[in-house]
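Exam prep: given the inputs below (a chain plus LLP), describe the expected output before reading on.
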Amino acid sequence: MNAFEYRNGHLYCEDVSLSQLAEEHGTPLWVYSENKFLDEFRALRDAFAECDPVICYSVKANSTLQILKSLNAAGSSFDVVSGGELYRVDKAGADTTRVVFAGVGKTDDEIRSALEKNILMFNVESEAELDAISRIAGEMGVTGPVALRLNPDIDAKTHAKTTTGKKGNKFGMDIERHNELAAKVLADPHLELRGIHMHLGSPILTTDPYEAAARRAGEVIAELRSKGHEISWVNLGGGFGLSYRNDEAPAYSTYAKVIVPHIKAAGCRLALEPGRSIIGNACVLVSRVIYTKREGGKLFVIQDGAMNDLMRPAMYDAFHRVWPVSTDVPLPTDCEADSIPGCEKTDVVGPVCESSDYFAKDRQLPPLERDDLLATYSAGAYGTCMSSNYNSRPRAAEVLVNGSDVKVIRRRETYDDLIAHEM
Ligand code: LLP
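Solution:
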């Protein structure tokens, strides 16, 4: 579904006008389309239906409680990377026996609480972690369910800061060690080997890395079974592409085509950990122009959204489409075009005192003036969850739209909130 559409030159989320939302709830404002992320979840599940997958939505992409509740009601499970995320999933009312837990630095307290909640499996990233899970499970008189997170040394061709499956990344254990690691688990009465896990990076816009990983997973499973391990799960992580620009991400069915045959041949259950592709295009960040100025031969539009809200451009030079909420100029297919009729080259920046605080650089945009509203697209993934109070800016509110229904799912922070934890 197209969650954000212009009607007579005004942008809508489902059946609600973004100008009206900005009027009622202020800016900056995160606006979600519930039907969009639910559609994405169902589309992914349907594409892999032949393997009866467990879709563990990756909480790190967006951990707002109401979003977790909504995905839980649609049948999603969850991938967590901290005790805090596990707490959120529990609070969302999810069945924690279908939760997977990754991360290179799980603490004893986090391991204990995951064992108490009877999670499906830990994606184990080191031998030292296997020892810790075994020790704690032993103390608790339970068995720790584990999947070995293997680093397959596959180049997923993502941004250097978001690649994880190459030798030399901090994640997982070298795939060549799978026999030795599995033998260690088998010999340990407090551990149970449930599966293997690989996550290659994010976002991955081609299918080759997944094909290679699924094939390697099949080979490893076959070898471990031949050595007597009863291993039943392959978890291929997340990383599915998102169209930040214009339909550049492959369809889920394209990924499924290269993954499913290997999983079926291995006779395994499949777990996936998608985050970005589910929630990314279900949200825009609405902001309001404060000033415009021309200096140094450039046109700057200064608006009230900033890097403390959406960190991705500053951190990864990430591209997000930015377009006025109300305009006669249609949203172009190519937002990076050198020239667009009725537009001028513009930098869209925020009020934070850093040159890296920008949403768009040298972008063709229609004329803008004070109080105009802007929509920054594809803001659902790694937006709110990476936002901060930098420059003592209160975090923005989040609203969830379903049809013509609007729910505030996180209220705007106040100045009192800013100092609430200080003594
Ligand atoms: N599973 C594991 C083990 C992961 O490390 C990640 C993401 C995912 C699943 C979910 O990947 P997704 O489906 O969302 O691509 N902050 C960065 C992205 C960091 C990704 C970290 N790991 C960004 O804004 O691009």
